[in-house]
C-alpha cells in the first residue's frame, strides 16, 4: 500500500496561476481536527476531580495537540512557500496573509475574555471587578502586538491558551529563513539530510540546555520557558524537515507499518520522558520534539486513510482555530459548573465523557459562527491587500 502523503509533491506543482491559498488537503484538516479534540480532552479532564489515575495518564497527552498543530502548520506553510517561490514581494505578502489569518479572531478573543471575566466576577461576587494582575494595559498591548510569548505576565493570561498563538506568530517571522535553509540542506542525499538534521537538533538542544543552565531557568510542564519559542522551535523545524523528506526523498512512500512503528516509538518515548527524573535530562525540553516526531508519522498515516470518519474530523479541523480560542469556556467553566451539580449522580469517568462531548459540540457551534463571520472575512481582507501589494 503506497502512502498518499506523497500527494504533497503533486500539490506543490500546482500551476503558478493559482495565486492565493494552497489547495486544501483533506488529511490536513482531519489532523487539525485530531489536534483540537486532544486539547479539549485534556482541558475537560482538568475540571473533573477524582478521575482514575489511568484516565489522567491518557488525557494529559492531549496537551500535545498543540504540537500537532505546530507540525501541520509548518508543513502547510512549506507547501504554500513552494507554490509561491516566484511571487513578487513574497515576504511582504506572506506576512500579510499570516497576520490576517490569525489577528482578527485573536483580537475578538482579547475583548471577549475580558468581558467574560467581568461576567464571571459579577456572578460570583455581585461586582464586575477585573483581575488587576491579569488585566493590565501592558499585558493587553503585548497580546495585541503578539509579543506576549516573550513577556511572562502576558503570555497565557489575557486569552486562555494564548501562549500557542504568540509562539506561532513568532515562528512566522522565522519561517522564511528556516524554509530557505532546509531547502538547501534537502539537496543532499537522504542519509546526509537525515544525519545533518539529527546533528542540528542535537546541537540546538546542547545550546538550549547551556542557556537554561546559565540563566538558572527551568523548563517544566506548562511554565513560561516550556511555552517559549526557544523550546518549541524544533517542533516547527520538524514540520519543514518532514515536508522536504516527502518532496525530495520519498518519505511519503514508507509502508504504513513503518509509520506505525515510528508513531509508537516516539509516542512511547514521549510518555517515558514525562515521568523521567534523571540528571542531565530536562524532560519538558525534549517532549515537544519527541511528540512532534510522532506526529510526523501520524501525518504520513493520515495521508493514506480514506474512511468516512475522516469527514467528521475534517469538518472539525476547518474551524479548529476558533474552537481552540473559545473552547475554554466550556471545557473549564462549563464543565466545572455542571460537575458541581451532577457529580453525585454518576461515576466521574462517565460524567467526564458527557462533559467532553458537550464541550466539543458547543465549541464547534460557536466556532462555526466565528469562522464564518470573523475568520473568513479577515482572510479575505488579507487576500485583497495581497492583490494590491507590489
End-to-end C-alpha gap: 45 Å
Overall pLDDT metric: 89
Compressed to H and E, one letter per element, the order equals: HHHHHHHHHHHHHHHHH
* Total number of helices: 17
What portion of the residues fall into strands of 2 or more residues? Answer: under 5%
Written overview of the protein:
The chain is mostly helical and 390 residues long. The chain has one domain (4-387). It is built from 17 helices and no strands. The chain has helices at residues 7-11, 26-45, 53-59, 65-83, 90-125, 137-144, 152-155, 162-185, 190-215, 224-227, 229-249, 256-274, 283-303, 309-318, 320-326, 328-342, 348-387. Helix 2 (26-45) packs parallel to helix 15 and helix 8 (162-185) crosses helix 11.
Topology, pairings included?
Blueprint: H1 7-11, H2 26-45, H3 53-59, H4 65-83, H5 90-125, H6 137-144, H7 152-155, H8 162-185, H9 190-215, H10 224-227, H11 229-249, H12 256-274, H13 283-303, H14 309-318, H15 320-326, H16 328-342, H17 348-387
Helix pairs in contact: 2-4, 2-14, 2-15, 2-16, 2-17, 4-8, 4-11, 4-13, 5-8, 5-17, 8-11, 9-11, 11-13, 12-13, 15-17, 16-17
Question: Which tags fit this structure?
Answer:
single chain, 390 residues, mainly alpha, 73% helix, globular, disordered N terminus
Give a quick precis of the structure.
The chain has 390 residues and is mostly helical. The chain is built from 17 helices and no strands.
Amino acid at each position: 500500500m503506497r502512502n498518499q502523503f506523497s500527494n504533497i509533491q503533486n500539490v506543490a506543482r500546482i500551476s503558478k496561476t493559482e495565486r492565493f491559498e494552497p489547495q486544501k488537503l483533506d488529511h490536513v484538516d482531519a489532523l487539525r481536527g485530531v489536534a483540537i479534540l486532544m486539547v479539549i480532552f485534556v482541558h475537560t479532564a482538568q475540571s473533573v476531580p477524582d478521575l482514575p489515575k489511568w484516565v489522567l495518564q491518557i488525557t494529559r497527552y492531549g496537551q500535545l495537540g498543540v504540537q500537532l498543530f505546530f507540525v501541520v502548520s509548518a508543513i502547510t506553510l512549506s507547501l504554500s512557500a513552494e507554490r509561491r517561490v516566484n511571487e513578487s514581494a513574497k515576504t511582504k505578502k506572506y506576512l500579510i496573509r499570516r497576520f490576517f489569518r490569525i489577528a482578527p479572531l485573536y483580537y475578538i478573543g482579547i475583548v471577549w475574555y475580558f468581558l467574560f471575566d467581568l461576567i464571571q466576577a459579577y456572578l460570583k461576587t455581585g461586582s464586575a471587578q477585573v483581575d488587576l494582575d491579569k488585566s493590565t494595559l501592558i499585558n493587553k498591548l503585548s497580546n495585541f502586538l503578539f509579543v506576549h510569548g516573550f513577556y511572562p505576565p502576558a503570555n497565557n493570561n489575557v486569552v486562555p491558551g494564548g501562549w500557542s498563538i504568540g509562539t506561532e506568530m513568532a515562528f512566522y517571522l522565522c519561517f522564511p529563513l528556516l524554509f530557505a535553509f532546509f531547502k538547501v540542506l534537502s539537496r543532499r542525499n537522504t542519509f546526509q539530510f537525515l544525519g545533518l538534521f539529527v546533528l542540528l537538533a542535537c546541537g540546538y538542544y546542547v545550546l538550549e540546555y547551556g542557556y537554561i543552565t546559565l540563566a538558572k531557568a527551568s523548563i517544566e510542564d506548562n511554565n513560561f520557558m516550556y511555552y517559549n519559542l526557544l523550546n518549541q522551535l524544533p517542533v516547527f523545524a520538524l514540520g519543514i524537515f518532514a515536508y522536504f523528506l516527502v518532496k525530495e526523498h520519498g518519505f511519503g512512500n514508507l509502508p504504513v507499518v513503518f509509520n506505525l512503528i515510528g508513531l509508537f516509538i516516539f509516542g512511547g518515548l514521549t510518555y517515558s520522558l514525562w515521568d523521567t527524573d534523571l540528571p542531565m535530562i530536562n524532560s519538558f525540553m525534549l517532549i515537544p520534539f519527541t511528540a512532534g516526531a510522532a506526529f510526523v508519522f501520524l501525518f504520513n498515516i493520515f495521508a493514506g486513510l480514506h474512511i468516512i470518519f475522516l469527514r467528521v474530523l475534517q469538518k472539525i479541523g476547518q474551524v479548529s482555530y476558533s474552537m481552540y480560542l473559545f473552547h475554554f469556556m466550556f471545557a473549564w467553566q462549563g464543565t466545572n459548573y455542571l460537575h458541581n451539580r451532577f457529580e453525585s449522580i454518576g461515576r466521574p469517568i462517565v460524567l467526564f465523557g458527557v462533559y467532553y462531548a458537550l464541550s466539543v459540540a458547543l465549541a464547534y457551534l460557536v466556532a462555526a459562527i466565528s469562522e464564518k463571520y470573523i475568520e473568513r472575512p479577515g482572510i479575505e481582507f488579507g487576500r485583497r491587500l495581497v492583490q494590491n501589494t507590489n
